[in-house]
Amino acid sequence: MIYLDYSATTPMSMDALDTLLKVSKDFIGNPNSLHRLGGKSKELIESATKQISELLKVKTNEIVYTSGATESNNMALLGVAFAYRNRGNHILVSSLEHPSIYAICDYLESIGFEVEKLKCNQEGLIDFEDLKHKMRPETILVSVALVNSEMGIREPLKMIRQIIKKENATTLFHSDMTQGLGKVPISVHDVDLASFSFHKIYGPKGIGLLYKQEKVTLVPIIHGSGKGSVLRPGTPAVPLIASASKSLRLALQDLERKEDFIEKLNEKIVKELSSYEGILINQTKYSIPHILNISLPNIKPETFIHALEDYEIYVGTNTACASGEVSEGVLAVYEDEKRASSTIRISLSYLTTTDEVNRFLHCFGLVFKRLGSLASKEKN
Ligand code: PMP
Fold first, then answer.
1. Are residues 320 and 230 in the same domain?
2. CA–CA separation, 36 and 372 (whole Å)
3. Does ligand 1 have an atom closer than 6 angstroms to the CB of 321?
4. Cα 313 to middle of ligand 1, angstroms
């Protein structure tokens, strides 16, 4: 099997899996319980949270555990919208967001908020002039993903923050950092709120995190009991939290070495795929090498993906959460509907081997020839 869909999700590392199993077996108490077993679980959460806070360079009370980045995004956007409604109802988002951000914005619009999309330039970066122009006194939130999930475009959050705060010091800045964590260096201090998900960094599925700067107020979107978190009441997921902290520590190691290696694999694939007639490489100089997006000429991406499956090769469409739809990001950058509706995403890991890439390229060639000639027969 050749797995090249690492941006959709990653396999768990043995260390993260070991922690998950051990903690599930040995820490049975509910951290909200008053007895010793509860206390033991509570202590474990506290030490995992301390480790995470040190790795992200934040305070422990700035961390909220969630079920994943979808929930973190909801908690951030809805939480800010409800908390700061008296200040204004205007929200700005980039054109390269994950579908979950747009779904939340649709909901916010349905209850009276005004959401505007920011333009991007030909390289996929936020158009700074457009941002300045769209900022208003009643803008309560701007949300920009650190790394776009479709083309891997990395936005300069520090610069974007400066513009936002200069135009309106009270506007909050959120970033969905899900696709950046474990791939590129991150600084949550560029933003006021940040979303993460651990299944993207070889950790368990079903756990994410929201960083919320201490001074930011959020209206809870989940209500319940429990002495733990106000924003996320209920029984904390002790094994998931412990395993998440292990996966974060590992994910942040050797970032540069891993990226250099992945860059070489990316270059090799781009070089070969560029030689095929009609294939378009959806990559700008701000794309990180872990995510490689291409458009296929006259071949349905689903058909292509299933044909590769026959060789036990697994790649993705634009994002796993929007399979089969037009890629919003590719459309925003290239303004070409056909190009944006025929994308596939090849996502690489430091676990990917040169041999896997060679075999992928070989099978890609076979599938491309077969489906390409079928497509041209259909056309004639
Ligand atoms: N944001 C981004 C940028 C993502 O890539 C994903 C996963 N496709 C999500 C949010 C959703 O994450 P989760 O599956 O943890 O809810």
1. no
2. 65
3. yes
4. 22
Give yes or no for residue 318 having a pLDDT over 70.
Answer: no
Question: What pLDDT score was predicted for residue 159?
Answer: 98
Using DSSP, state whether 102 is helix, strand or coil: helix
Last-in-domain residue among 204, 219, 251:
251
Q: Which residues are catalytic?
A: 321
**Cα–Cα distance for residue pair 147/363, rounded to 1 Å:** 29
At which of 251, 284, 307 does a domain end?
Answer: 251
Establish whether residue 281 lines the binding site of ligand 1, counting it when its CB lies within 6 angstroms of any ligand atom: no
CATH code for the domain of 281? 3.90.1150.10
353/358 Cα distance (integer angstroms): 9
Nearest CA to ligand 1 atom 5: 149
Confidence of residue 244 (pLDDT cuts 50, 70, 90): very high
Question: Nearest residue CA, atom 12 of ligand 1?
Answer: 69
Domain count, the chain: 2
For ligand 1, atom 9, the nearest C-alpha belongs to: 69
Q: Say if residues 211 and 58 touch (Cβ distance below 8 Å).
A: yes
193 versus 225: which is more confidently predicted?
193
CB of 104 within 6 A of ligand 1: the answer is no
For residue 273 the two structure tokens come to: 């795929």
Average pLDDT over residues 35-63: 98
Residue that is written with structure tokens 């979950």 in the block: 100
Residue of 96, 102, 178, 317 with the most ligand 1 atoms within 8 Å of its CB, for mutation:
178
The answer to whether residues 208 and 259 belong to one domain is no
**CB of residue 150 inside a 6 A radius of ligand 1:** no
Quote the CA–CA distance of 30 and 43 in Å, as a whole number: 11
Q: pTM for this structure?
A: 0.96
CATH code for the domain of 220: 3.40.640.10
How far is the C-alpha of 285 from the C-alpha of 249, rounded, in Å? 29
- Ligand 1 atom 15 nearest Cα: 68
pLDDT score of 158 more than 80: yes
Q: What is the number of the ligand 1 atom nearest to the C-alpha of 145?
A: 3
Q: What is the pLDDT of residue 323?
A: 52
Same domain for 239 and 268?
Answer: no
Q: How far is the CA of 290 from the centre of ligand 1 (A)?
A: 16
Structural domain boundaries, residue 300: 2-9+254-379
If asked whether residues 136 and 264 sit together in one domain, one would say no
- The answer to whether 346 and 303 have CB atoms below 8 angstroms apart is no
